[in-house]
Amino acid sequence: MKPLMLQGHERAITQIKYNREGDLLFSAAKDAKPNVWWSLNGERLGTFNGHGGVVWCLDVDWQTINLITGGGDSSCRLWDLETGKNIATIKTNSSVRTCNFSYSAYQAAYTTDKAMGHPCEVFIIDTRTVDDSISSQSPILKWEITDSKVTSMVWGTLDETIITGHEAGDLIQWDLRTGKKVHSIKEHNHQINDMQLSRDGTMFITASKDQTAKLFDTSSLELLKEYKTERPVNSAALSPILDHVVLGGGQDAMEVTTTSTRQGKFDARFFHLVFEEEFGRVKGHFGPINSLAFHPDGKSYASGGEDGYVRVQSFDQSYFDYTFDYNRD
Question: Is 39 exposed, middle or buried (0-12, 13-18, 19+ CB in 10 A)?
Fold first, then answer.
């Protein structure tokens, strides 16, 4: 099927996310204006105006009431989705690199970069009542990261932990009652660009600059599977209905102009979750893929690229009919 091309950003896409029902798709980019789209027909519903620079991250709560965004203008902002209004702005000392609502959406976590003499920090805030008062409230919890900075993050099971991915390739699990480190592993040897949970939250996948994506157990951080490519992986997502993984990436933007698009450097690549084997590729972007997301019904996926486009690709029937041949003996 022909993909929907969503053209609303002037610069590279940094992150895309569906809401829980999948009727809305949110996109953040380096042009300061996050967008929201109807995922069915690609029509743009609106933009969220207020950031003064690149928007690195966004997340939507499970009831699709509020949106949280973090940007290079040293602010984390909360938005009312019905009106598009900026309800609260939390000023930070440096760029906000990651932000996520907890599953219950009673809390949100965001992290700031190590920059301008300020350390990388993790903040947990109370989001049960979202209004102006959040700007002046102290966070529930905050702590400094003394090692390499946080580049990606997900919430752990039952909102009791968060797991942070770091520039040096470490994964660290934090206890939110104490703000202390519970567990730390280093399975990647380069920056972790993206982390996404499985539908039931029991597993998560990481995408790294070291040209691999890896599957981990959310509670124990045990490494379960590894998917290898020949170029940096910027994003990876898990299908909600099939044992499939999609990876996206490409070389750094500086090297892009020297290569032909025909070489398949910017394809979305599909791997079998269990067997770790690649079984399909989808072309389309004219630059590295920076963010990927499966639709919650598993029948389509979206990708956001360095070229500023968001593409929504529905799967043909052959995708669902495809079975992996293996010996059952």
Answer: buried
Instruction: Determine the Cα–Cα distance for residues 249 and 193; give it in Å rounded to an integer.
Output: 10
End-to-end CA distance of the chain: 37
Residues recorded for the chain = 329
CB 162 within 8 A of CB 203: no
Helix (H) and strand (E) counts in the chain: 3, 28
Q: What angle do CA 31, 33, 37 make, to 5 degrees?
A: 120
pLDDT in tens, 267-304: 999 999 999 999 999 998 889 999 999 999 999 999 99
Q: Which amino acid is at 160?
A: E
Question: What phi and psi, each to the nearest 5 degrees, are found at residue 319?
Answer: -65, -40
Enter the pTM of the model: 0.93
The 10s digit of each residue's pLDDT in 192-210 is: 999 999 999 999 999 999 9
Share of the chain above pLDDT 90, in %: 81
Rounded Cα–Cα distance for residues 69 and 43 (Å): 21
In sequence order, which ranges of the chain are alpha helices (DSSP H)?
Answer: 133-136, 253-256, 317-321
**Could you give the CA distance from residue 145 to residue 121 in angstroms, rounded to a whole number?**
6
Name the one residue in this structure whose structure tokens are 């124990």.
Answer: 220
Going by C-alpha positions, the residue among 221, 211, 98 that lies closest to residue 151 is 98
Residues 6+ apart with CB under 8 A from 234: 193, 194, 207, 248, 249, 250, 288, 289, 290, 291
3-state secondary structure of 25: strand
Cβ burial of 319 (10 Å; 0-12, 13-18, 19+) is middle
Cα radius of gyration rounded to whole Å, the chain: 19
Sheet with 55-60, strands from edge to edge, namely 55-60, 66-71, 75-80, 86-91
Structure tokens at 30: 């380096």
